[in-house]
Specification:
The chain is α+β, with helices and mostly antiparallel strands. Helix content is 63%, strand content 13%. The protein has a single domain, classed as Winged helix-like DNA-binding domain superfamily/Winged helix DNA-binding domain (Arc Repressor Mutant, subunit A). The protein has six helices and three strands. The relative contact order is 0.14.
Length: 109
């Protein structure tokens, strides 16, 4: 099964460390953009651009409270990435076992 364009878009969006950090901030509570910006050493305009990308990928939603825009995490799209990564879960124990054997052999030398 190959990656879909939705997965590719999600991978591109979450590839940026600030966007991942924004998602982490939004895990605990809905947050206004101005409050999110306070956590980073970038402009409010830059935060807005990151939020726009996250919103476009369906990872955040926004609603207005007076003049503020409040952002909420929408983690459902990450499930598709998680499912894709899980396809490799059987691969890792075998590779770790091979690494362990390699290290044991080299230690004896």
């Amino acid at each position: 099964m190959g990656r879909t364009s939705l997965q590719e878009d999600l991978f591109l969006v979450i590839a940026h460390p600030i966007r991942r950090a924004i998602l982490v901030e939004l895990r605990s509570k809905d947050t206004p953009a101005t409050q999110l910006a306070a956590h980073f050493d970038i402009t409010l305009s830059a935060i807005s651009q990151h939020l726009k990308a996250l919103k476009g990928a369906g990872l955040v939603s926004e609603h207005r409270n007076g003049r503020q825009r409040i952002y909420s995490l929408q983690a459902a799209p990450l499930r598709e990435i998680s499912n894709w990564v899980d396809e490799f879960s059987l691969y890792w124990p075998k590779k770790m076992e091979s690494l362990g054997e390699h290290l044991r052999r080299n230690r004896k030398k």
